[in-house]
Request: fold
Amino acid sequence: MTDATSVPARGAAAEDRPAVEAVGLGKRYRGGRWALRDCHFTVPAGRICGVVGANGAGKSTLLTLAARLIDPTEGELRVFGEASSTPRSRARVAYVTQEKPLYPSFTVAETLRIGRELNPGWDEEAARRVVDLGELHPRSRIGALSGGQRTRIALALALGKRAELLLLDEPMADLDPLARHELMGLLMAEAAERGTTILVSSHILPELDGVIDHLLLVQAGRIRLAGDLEEILDGHQLLTGVAGGAELPAGIAVERRVRGRQVTALLHTGEPVDGPWESVRPSLEELLLAYLRTPLPPAQLATPAPATDREAAA
Ligand SMILES: Nc1ncnc2c1ncn2[C@@H]1O[C@H](COP(=O)(O)OP(=O)(O)OP(=O)(O)O)[C@@H](O)[C@H]1O
Reply:
């Protein structure tokens, strides 16, 4: 499971350097346990990357580090080849969370005006499109909007900023299904047009299917899977067979479940398995559910440093 930097990125604004690169990244909150540890991964520019994991796995910590709202305890995280702490990196990043820190006493129009004044490359049309589709009145106060309507404003600010890296931490959680579908479509269209890189965390796995092309699976503060989504799916087989029919190949089963007389197993191999099995490539949801149901102990989750770093250290 490697990072497929060789796959061409989408859109005109895509560039050669990875959008996000974590090297030995770790975060321990004051007085707490490690929320993230020993993370090595790369997200090529222009990708839409799903950040998936159980509650408390470390997804928000990862996205907050990428937005550089908190500092890493160890290691580093680079944005387009630069430390995420530099003003240039910050200007290239927009971060939208469920909290949406907007001023409740400001109106919609005033909020957009602040976005325009703070961002030299402001794209009024992109921001307006998001607001207008939600039929929000320019004179409505932010504090009087619903959670979903505030999400729309936060996304309008992120798109107006013309960020090259969009960090979305479960941004759609409080949107109704129609608005979620519409805003997701809008985001993807903008991303495809401009080559924007998106890191999006979500617990709604079907929502990610057909949208993401890269995956980070975070488990207990470690990266369990990272890479190009097609390569990850191609590297697994979902087996179905009759219980007691045949032994599973040793050492490559991520998960094995028995229901009545039926056995299903997710294997970490790209080769269809011979024997009395139906062997198919898993869907994204099947893959993620199998991994989420079978957490590994932290000692087995340490990800090796990329070859380039190991060579540099030699
Ligand atoms: N400000 C903080 N202070 C101390 N511990 C924290 C803080 N924020 C997060 N943590 C801890 O860090 C770990 C990872 O939390 P994080 O919010 O990153 O997980 P998550 O994957 O986003 O979870 P969820 O899916 O529930 O939002 C958890 O054990 C959490 O309790």
